[in-house]
Write a structure and sequence with these properties.
- There is one protein chain.
- The chain is mostly helical.
- It has three domains: about 70 residues, lambda repressor-like DNA-binding domains (434 Repressor (Amino-terminal Domain)); about 160 residues, no CATH class; about 55 residues, no CATH class.
- Helix content is about 50%, strand content about 5%.
- It is built from 17 helices and five strands.
- It has a three-stranded mixed β-sheet with strand order 2-4-3, with helices on both faces. Strands 1-5 form a two-stranded antiparallel sheet.
- A hairpin with a 2-residue loop joins β3 and β4.
- The radius of gyration is 22 Å and the shape is elongated.
- About 5% of the residues have low confidence.
Length: about 350
């Protein structure tokens, strides 16, 4: 029997209106509305047509409910926003599957109830044992503290990154089209959204988390020249412009110095070479491969196709190979260090 919420989820994931799905499946918009609200159930043949029209494997529309999510995304067209949230709901379903098979770190993301994002960032840094030094790989760091980090499929990029808590577990969903520097900053900003319980300034939180006041004041000289800003941005794993803004806010660059540095940075291309990706998911797929479980088998069990699954896991289904993603290798000197993380197969 068709599960009404699954039909609504699948339609939203494909970015279809009721009218468009009805046309593709050869039924009426009123019938689609009835099916989605559980007022009546389609015949098996109609369910098969709906499944085919939506491009999901057989059985997807008849599986259990997928949890609803309340999230705030970047302003985007409703279709793309709904598609992104639907992808996040599928990712949480995948995470539930993973949790039944593996033991992950317990969530350890404190909350901050005051209007002071800079202090909140310092609090999280102190709790996680990185008070003043450059933060390691942000995706690995969040995963080591129980945050589940997924990528969004390419067609969901307009919604931007977002985060939420579901049944006590914090989740972060990242924009697949962001540059390596921007993706790292986005990860820190979503950590801010998870930490700041009031409507706080997650942008300020992210800057303070990646560039802690005490650490930057101790490391970067007053009046730094452009080349020095670039060199220190590599140390702190941020874009040079992000560091320049921070130096201005901390009083290490005067307004004329800041303007001159930004003008010179605008004429050059610098930044991280590789995007930070998931350590947990890399280990999961490697472990499953070693045990003979293929990505196709995982996708079949989840009632997804491999392309859909791959879009949620940083492309690791197709690219995870022995030796990748375990941290810094020779030649990866621009990559932040990897926090220790242990994954236990149940």
């Amino acid at each position: 029997m068709l599960t009404p919420s699954r039909l609504a989820l699948a339609r939203a994931r494909r970015g279809l209106t009721v009218v468009e799905l009805a046309s593709k499946a050869g039924t009426s918009p009123a019938s689609i509305g009835d099916y989605e609200h559980g007022r009546r159930h389609p015949r098996p043949a109609t369910t098969a047509k709906l499944t085919e029209a939506l491009g999901f494997p057989a059985g997807f529309l008849e599986a259990d409910d997928v949890p609803e999510l309340e999230v705030v995304t970047r302003p985007a067209p409703k279709r793309q926003r709904d598609a992104a949230i639907s992808a996040a709901r599928l990712a949480i379903g995948f995470d539930a599957w993973l949790t039944r098979a593996f033991t992950f770190p317990e969530p350890d993301v404190p909350t901050w109830e005051h209007h002071d994002p800079e202090t909140a960032a310092e609090m999280v840094r102190a709790r996680w044992g990185i008070p003043h030094r450059p933060a390691p790989n942000m995706v690995h760091l969040l995963e080591a503290h129980g945050v589940r980090v997924f990528s969004l499929p390419q067609d969901c990029a307009a919604a931007g990154p977002f985060s939420c808590r579901h049944n006590g577990t914090p989740y972060v969903f990242l924009d697949p089209t962001a540059t390596p520097d921007q993706a790292r900053f986005d990860t820190a900003r979503e950590l801010g959204h998870l930490t700041l319980t009031r409507t706080g300034d997650a942008q300020t939180f992210a800057t303070a988390f990646l560039l802690p006041r005490a650490g930057v004041l101790a490391a970067v000289p007053r009046g730094a020249l452009t080349e020095q800003v670039v060199a220190h941005s590599t140390t702190w794993h941020v874009a040079p412009l992000t560091l320049a803004h921070r130096l201005r806010d901390l009083g290490l660059l005067t307004r004329p110095q800041y303007t001159a540095v930004c003008a010179q940075l605008a004429r050059r291309t610098t930044g991280m070479a590789r995007r930070e990706t998931s350590q947990v998911l890399t280990k999961v797929f490697r472990t499953l491969r070693a045990q003979g479980t293929t990505p196709h088998a995982i996708a079949r069990e989840l009632l997804l196709d491999v392309e859909e699954l791959n879009g949620l896991v940083f492309g690791l289904v197709l690219t995870a190979l022995p030796g990748e993603g375990d941290g810094n290798r020779e030649g990866d000197r621009d990559q932040p260090a990897t926090p220790h993380l242990t994954l236990v197969r149940r």
